[in-house]
């Protein structure tokens, strides 16, 4: 027998075994999952308010996520939740590591209401606030133009506005929408959607859950679905750095069904909630819905809040409609020098939206057959673009826009838009000083006129 051969075989086997052991030893492991004790937590009322609860996870080294049982969530080993209303809330902590996750839950009891914790202008306008009856009922503003509509997503030069199509007043009778009511409760953020049996449905969503029982309406050639009241749902208001959203739970929504339950708030005041939302099937579409409180009668047509050019703000302070976070005030002229020595001017604080501005409704259509220019005085903090838009109050889809450049800053200048050839279709003047800005720059404006 060849002993050298046997020795070679033995060494080879030993080497293979050694390599195999080495590979097994180097194989990574995922580790043990969190234990039951790791998922435990403690809680205590904060020193400032018994309705504000501080939570602490037992194992601070693990990734932790919280469901506070009140519609809000949190992250981290320590977290705080706010409970404005009395009740029992189930709080769940989930911890995880590379080996897995584990959860535990506890009920906490809040003894009494503290509505001051949700006392903010947005909550007050939406629900009536702590001083009200505890809820507010809203409906589609069917008497107003553009109570529903659609535009592009992402938005284009018109900003958050249904530039592709906007409804006229009472344009969709029998659509299952005008008799619907939307009830925002302050207590528990409850939401009741009262449908009276049916809802108005986008054609692309007809027949798709939850709108499976859908019929075509021959009167307006659209769709509606049999849909019961959605009661005891919730609404969640989320205030972000750039926008505010409202999300509805369950199968509830507001207005026209296009597959969405989260809405961006464009404007919210005592008598109007104007929102937009992305179509659930076609993300290139942005839908719009305008609500008003039940019992409130809007007046989109001619009325007392109509004005005529020129506007010099000396004896008449026109009622302005602002958007995009714009603020306005009539003040003493801060720079009575140069071309404008008027005693009173309009101060404009630019909002946080690039399309921020304001409009004024006029008492007659502007006629450019003889006087072809819109002119005004502007004091701007910096050079930039100033946009003018003319609209038809009865049909906001009918409009014209023109830009000019303001080339002088920190001084009164006279600017003009040449409207030669513009049809006599427009009775709303919309102005965007600082077009494209997203900072609260202050402008002054005066002597708006047609010449």
Distance between the termini: 119 Å
**Tally of individual domains:** 3
Q: Roughly what fraction of the amino acids lie in strands?
A: 35-45%
The radius of gyration over CA amounts to: 31 Å
Q: How confident is the prediction overall: mean pLDDT?
A: 87
Query: Quick one: overall form?
Result: globular
What does this structure look like?
It contains two helices and 30 strands. It has 451 residues and is mainly β. The protein has three domains: 37-114, Sandwich (Immunoglobulin-like), CATH 2.60.40.10; 121-293, Lipocalin (Beta Barrel); 321-450, Galactose-binding domain-like (Jelly Rolls). The strands form six sheets. An eight-stranded antiparallel barrel has the order 8-11-12-16-17-18-19-20. A hairpin with a 2-residue loop joins β6 and β7 (100-110). The model is unreliable at 1-24 and 300-304 (pLDDT under 50).
């Amino acid at each position: 027998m060849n002993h050298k051969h046997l020795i070679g075989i033995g060494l080879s086997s030993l080497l293979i075994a050694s390599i195999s052991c080495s590979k097994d030893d180097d194989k990574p492991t995922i580790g043990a999952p969190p234990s039951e004790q790791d998922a435990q937590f403690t809680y205590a009322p904060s020193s400032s308010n018994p309705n504000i609860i501080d939570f602490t996870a037992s194992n601070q080294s693990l990734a932790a996520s919280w469901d506070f049982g009140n519609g809000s969530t949190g992250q981290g080993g320590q977290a705080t939740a706010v409970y404005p209303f009395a009740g029992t809330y189930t709080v769940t902590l989930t911890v995880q590591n590379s080996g897995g996750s584990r959860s535990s839950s506890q009920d906490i009891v809040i003894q009494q209401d503290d509505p001051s914790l949700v006392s903010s202008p947005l909550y007050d306008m939406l629900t009536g606030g702590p001083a009200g009856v505890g809820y507010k009922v809203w409906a589609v503003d069917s008497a107003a133009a553009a109570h529903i509509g659609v535009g592009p997503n992402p938005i284009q030069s018109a900003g958050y506005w249904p530039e592709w199509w906007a409804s006229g007043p009472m344009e969709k009778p029998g659509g299952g929408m005008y008799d619907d009511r939307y009830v925002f409760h302050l207590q528990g953020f409850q939401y009741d959607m009262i449908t009276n049996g049916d809802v108005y449905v986008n054609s692309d969503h007809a027949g798709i859950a939850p709108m499976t029982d859908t019929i075509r309406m021959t009167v307006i050639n659209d769709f509606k679905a049999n849909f019961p009241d959605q009661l005891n749902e919730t609404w969640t208001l989320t205030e972000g750095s750039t926008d505010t959203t409202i999300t509805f739970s369950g199968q509830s929504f507001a207005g026209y069904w296009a597959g969405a339950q989260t809405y961006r708030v464009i404007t919210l005041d005592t008598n109007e909630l104007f929102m937009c939302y992305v179509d659930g099937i076609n993300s290139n579409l942005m839908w719009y819905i305008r609500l008003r409180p039940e019992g409130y009668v809007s007046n989109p047509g001619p009325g007392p809040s109509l004005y005529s050019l020129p506007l010099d703000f000396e004896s008449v302070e026109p009622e302005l409609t602002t958007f995009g976070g714009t603020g306005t005030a009539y003040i003493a002229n801060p720079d009575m020098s140069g071309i404008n020595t008027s005693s009173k001017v309009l101060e404009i604080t630019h909002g946080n939206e690039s399309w921020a501005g304001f409009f004024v409704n006029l008492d007659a259509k502007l006629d450019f057959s003889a006087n072809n220019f819109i002119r005004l005085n502007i004091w701007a903090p910096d050079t930039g673009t100033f946009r003018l838009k003319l609209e038809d109050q009865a049909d906001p889809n009918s409009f014209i826009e023109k830009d000019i450049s303001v080339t002088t800053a920190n001084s009164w200048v006279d600017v003009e838009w040449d409207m030669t050839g513009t049809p006599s279709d427009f009775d709303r003047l919309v102005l965007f000083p600082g077009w494209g800005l997203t900072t609260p720059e202050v402008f002054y404006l005066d002597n708006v006129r047609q010449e």
